[in-house]
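Hi there,

I know you've been waiting on this one. I reran it after we fixed the sequence typo, so this is the corrected version. Both the input and the resulting structure follow.
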Amino acid sequence: MLKIVRKKRLFIIAAIVAVLVSLFTYAQFKQIETIRERIGTTDWRTQLQQQIIDTQNRLNSTGISEDWKKFLKIRLQQQQYYLDNDINPMAPGAPTFMRMFIENSIELFLPLLVMVIAADLVSSEASGGTIKLLLTRPVKRWKILMSKYIAMMLSTSFVVFSVALLSYAISGIVFGYGGWNLPLLTGFSIQGEELNTSAVHLISQWKYLLIEFGLAFFVSLVVGTLTFMLSVLIRSTAAVMGIMLAALISGAILSNMVSSWTSAKYLFMVNLRLTSYISGMAPPIDGMTLSFSMTVLAIWALGALIVSFYVFTKRDVY
C-alpha cells in the first residue's frame, strides 16, 4: 500500500475524478438550462411530460433496432409511472448527481480506475526483479500475495470513496447539497417488454445511494481481483492493462448487442452494470437478474483469486 502511495497513483486518480466530475457537472447544468429554455418552465412535471413526448416520438421513428425499441418502451413506462405517482426522479441536488454519475460510471470508468491501480501490483515486482528479493524473506508466499491483495482492496475502497466524495462536493457547488431524503422508486422488474411494478416501493435517496455505491464497490473489487490475477500471471504491466482494457470496452459494447446471444450472460464484463437492476432498466439479456449477475461476478472473482494464489505459491521462477 505504501508503494502505491509513493507512486502518487491514488492522488492522480483523485485528480482525474475531480476533473471529470467538474466536466459532467457543467454538462448537466447546461442540459438543465437547455431544457428550461426549450420548454419555458421550471416545473418538473411539465419537463417530464415533454420527456415522455420525446420518448414516444423516438419510439415511433423508423430505423431503430428492436433492442432500442424495447429500451425506449421500458423507459416510457417508467417516466409515466413517476408522473402518475407525482415523484420527481431528477430533483436537482448533489445526491441526485451522485446517483447519475455512479450509474453511468459503474460499467467502464470506475473499473478502469481500479485496473490502473491493480495492474502492476505483482507484475512490476516480477519485471523489475524485486520479486526475487521479496521471496527470500522468511515469509510464506501466500502471505506476501495476501498483503498485495489487501493493498488492492484498500486502494479500491479509496477510489470508490473518492468518486462519492468528489462528485458530492463539486456538484453541490452548482446544484446545492440537499436532496438526501428525496423519495425514489425502486423494485422495478422487466418481463419481456413490459415493466412490472408490483414490487415497486419508495426509499430515501440516501438509502438508494448506499445500495448503488455498495454495488459499485463490489464491481470494482471483482475487476480489481481479475486484474490482480493477470498481474500474477503476466510480467508485463502494459499487457495486463491492455487485456483488461479490451475486456472492459468489449463488455460495454456487448451489453448493447448480445440480447440474442444468451450464453454471453456468463461473461463477467456483461454483468458489470448492477445499478441498472435497481433503477429498473432492461438487462442485456432476458432473464438476467441482480442475484444472477452478482453470482456470476463472484464466481469469476473467486476463480481469479484461486488461480492467483496457486500460481504464485507454486511457480519457481519470476
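Quick highlight: The mean pLDDT is 84.

Best,
R. S.
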